[in-house]
Write a structure and sequence with these properties.
Number of strands: 4
Radius of gyration: 17 Å
Number of domains: 1
Bound molecules: zinc ion
Structural class: alpha+beta
Distance between the termini: 14 Å
Helix content: 55-70%
Largest sheet: 4 strands, mixed
Mean pLDDT: 92
């Protein structure tokens, strides 16, 4: 690693946190408040700079730079290699949306996603028509962003290994 790349990494880190505390402030305040409401005994960890905590609800969600994971698969599972990994990476896709959309994230992603996930009429629609939860634009876009992000990381890592 060169001095120049170390400086670039530091600059990227500073830029990331400046964006999180300005451009993404609204959803991060909501995420932080929710994060603090979850009992402290529930495991939490940092995943690619996002704060992750398990909760007792049957679904997972992202809010800004905060991710809330269902403990349906067991809280003690190793999140980065266990059954929860696809869910964790999907939710990380929502954190990427938050970075891209900033203050529009709540209006364009969080609210429509909550309606699509939670309203009984949409649950019935998905069940009766056999429609995937992930076909809704908020969800399919999160999957695409997450896929691109982790693929790029893997390819950067493989280039460094050579
Ligand atoms: Zn989602």
């Amino acid at each position: 690693m060169t001095i120049r790349s170390i400086h670039m990494n530091k600059l990227r880190n500073v830029g990331f946190w400046v964006l999180q505390t300005t451009w993404c402030l609204l959803q991060n305040i909501a995420g932080a408040l929710l994060f603090l409401c979850i009992p402290k005994h529930r495991p939490c960890f940092v995943y690619h700079k996002a704060f992750v905590r398990y909760w007792s609800l049957s679904y997972s969600m992202g809010m800004g730079n905060f991710i809330f994971l269902t403990d349906t698969f067991g809280r003690d599972a190793d999140a980065e290699s266990g059954k929860i990994l696809p869910t964790l990476q999907h939710e990380y896709g929502h954190t990427r949306q938050s970075l891209l959309l900033g203050p529009l994230y709540v209006l364009l992603i969080a609210l429509p996603s909550a309606v699509w996930c939670g309203l009984p009429c949409f649950r019935r629609y998905r069940k009766n028509k056999k429609v995937s939860y992930y076909c809704f634009y908020t969800e399919s876009w999160a999957n695409r962003l997450s896929g691109k992000y982790f693929k790029r990381l893997l390819s950067n890592w493989q280039q460094k290994e050579k």
